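User: tokens in, sequence out, please.
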């Protein structure tokens, strides 16, 4: 899955959790969830290995390249030690983050773990699959055939986007909805 699909999947899980349990993340939790939804690809070539590229408008070209070099180095080391979609793609890690967050009453760590698991769920639908029993067994399992960057992934991403918008709207804080109404009225008045 590409980065936008991973982020959307993370948001979809937030919507499901919000609807089922009535809990939603604050701003820090939401940011943490988004980072978590990209984090497992630090063992490979995902967007998380090039964060400077995403923020180069704010960072400027040189600093962005410097940040990217650091992350690329970290990704190489982690990829070398664990391999792509090795232990870093183990659901156990996501569960551990949630457990640590709950234990220390740090909800942002819980949301990071939720994002992390949502990433793994997405990769579970790709042909390469994920090592669900890692570190006990590194055999990869897959329940789908959605190739990274394919038309199928795009259709899935659009479906998730619609789901998030339709079912997530009522979960937004009133203040955010007001901003939308102001924008909307300003635009069409
Ligand atoms: Zn991945």
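Assistant: Sequence out:
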């Amino acid at each position: 899955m590409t980065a936008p699909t991973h982020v959307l999947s993370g948001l979809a899980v937030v919507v499901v959790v919000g609807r089922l349990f009535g809990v939603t993340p604050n701003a820090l939790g939401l940011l943490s969830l988004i980072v978590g939804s990209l984090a497992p690809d630090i063992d490979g070539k995902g967007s998380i290995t090039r964060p400077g590229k995403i923020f180069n408008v704010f960072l400027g070209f040189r600093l962005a390249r410097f940040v990217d070099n650091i992350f690329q180095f970290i990704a190489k080391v982690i990829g070398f030690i664990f391999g792509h979609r090795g232990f870093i793609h183990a659901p156990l890690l996501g569960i551990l983050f949630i457990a640590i967050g709950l234990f220390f009453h740090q909800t942002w760590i819980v949301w990071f773990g939720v994002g992390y698991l949502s990433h793994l769920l997405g990769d579970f639908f790709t042909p390469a699959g994920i090592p669900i029993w890692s570190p006990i067994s590194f055999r990869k399992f897959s329940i789908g055939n959605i190739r990274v960057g394919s038309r199928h992934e795009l259709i899935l991403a659009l479906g998730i986007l619609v789901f998030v918008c339709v079912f997530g709207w009522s979960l937004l804080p009133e203040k955010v909805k007001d901003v939308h109404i102001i924008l909307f009225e300003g635009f069409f008045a």
